[in-house]
Amino acid sequence: MENHNKYYIEKLAQINAAAGIEKPTACVVTYGCQMNARDSEKFSGMLFEMGYDLTNDEQAADLVIFNTCCVRENAENKLYGNLGNLKEKKRANPHFKIVLAGCMMQQDIVVDKIKQSYNFVDVIFGTHNIYRFPELLYSHFETGDSIVDVWENATEIVEDLPSLREYPFKAGVNIMYGCNNFCTYCIVPYVRGRERSRKPADILAEIKVLAANGVTEIMLLGQNVNSYGIGLECGTTFAQLLYMVNDVEGIARIRFMSSHPKDMTDDVVFAMRDLPKVCKMLHLPFQAGSSRLLKLMNRKHTKEWYIDLIDRVKANIPDIALTTDIMVGFPGETEEDFQHTLDVARHVRFSSAFTFIYSRRHGTPADLMENQVDENVVKDRFNRLVTEVNAISLELNEGRVGKTLSILVESEGKNGVLNGRADDGSLVHFEGDKALIGKYVDVRITEAKTFYLIGEQVQ
Length: 459
Ligand code: 5AD
Ligand code: SF4
Hints:
Shape: globular
Bound molecules: 5'-deoxyadenosine, iron/sulfur cluster
Number of helices: 13
Distance between the termini: 51 Å
């Protein structure tokens, strides 16, 4: 699709210059998943080209854009809290601009609520037209009106948006957008639309440019990466794409997320086993252990099938680190159902698990189910689950003490301690020179914690 961005970006740069704001600043606030984080890099890139300097300070910025998430209610509440905090600033300074984008805006009830209760917001758009951000902002500047432009469906994929990457050495790369699965609790298919895959040539071109600029670790992103390729003329599968990315010179590590167990085919398992650059980690959400509940969730897998899949993965890749998403409190969940969840967690032994309390989402089938579970019962189950998965994480980490792992150093934390990640995704803290950020360092693990490892650089 033709990209008219440049025209509006230049216009906005002129408007800012004419307004006499010497160096306007913009703050991009991101909620939610890696896909949103990637979209935010595109917002940052577009803003930068419009002449804005990027800042993390919402209160000081001339423009704030919230890239919203609606997967759970607390993500939505955070936005409302933030808008409330900015109300005064907006009243005092009408030149201050507030832009709302992302998944929440795809819901009519949200946009209606914002129009009613937060009518000082300047621009609203959704997930399907992020490339039009410069044009919408320009319309706002030209007319002074609040602009709302939310599309119900996605159009073709727009390539080549500007982008300011968060890290110079690792990068997320979208390979597909949307989700076709309609798990009954989940809002994502309604706000992100149907699955669309990028062409392999576009993906590879992006990764080659990244590699040429010093990126060595790639995270292939999609709501459901395993069904990559459906609808593409060339028919490339996800496993084939992994082979292609593995061939890109300069890339050392390949990760991907998320996968759906029902689409985790053997060819992907074999590609993970055989390709040297594909990291030995797999994020495979199972949500719940009870096959009865999984059916009500429309997950299209059973407890036995999931366990069998995990056993196959482990048999092929013995040193694999497994991570997952688990939900408690889905409507109708009984103690017996919950015991199946604990059973899967104990059987698989996840390196780490993202645990969630079920959150009712307007417009999803589960929201209409009558037997919503009592809040206190859910909290109790949640606490028991967290205790169990944390104990397993710690045990697995303790098993790594004494090993030497290759760490890609990512950042400097408190007290000059460096943070980095091993091939299997585990977070490692060690003392070292911050000049090591972006480099691979051998670190011997000396101590294990629940969520991270502590080590010493091997000289
Ligand atoms: N409530 C709680 N958690 C949810 N997730 C998706 N929808 C909901 C919901 N309504 C979780 C799932 C998914 C992860 C990204 O978020 O576990 O895998
Ligand atoms: Fe939501 Fe299910 Fe799609 Fe994941 S696979 S985004 S949980 S509908």
